[in-house]
Amino acid sequence: MVDTQIKLDTPAVLRKWPSFKNERLSSSKLPYSVMDSTLRECIRAFIAKPDSQRHLYEIHTGPQGEIIGPVMGWKNIVELAQQLDLRYRL
Question: Where do the structural domains in the chain lie, given as residue ranges?
Fold first, then answer.
């Protein structure tokens, strides 16, 4: 269950790993910034991506409790988005 204290207006950055044919490039050392906004907007932008590409994205933000770390991988973002939709209607 998601803690009701999650701050969706906290600064966040949506990042994408460089890829080729929907696979992450092993030569890439860092993902690049796609969006610099709030956690809410980064989650919305992530959810708008095709399921087949979500594994290439992550969100960087300030940690909040157990579910939100400084770097959220795609599985954590999907889980959080599903739980937040029930409470916050992103």
Answer: 11-88
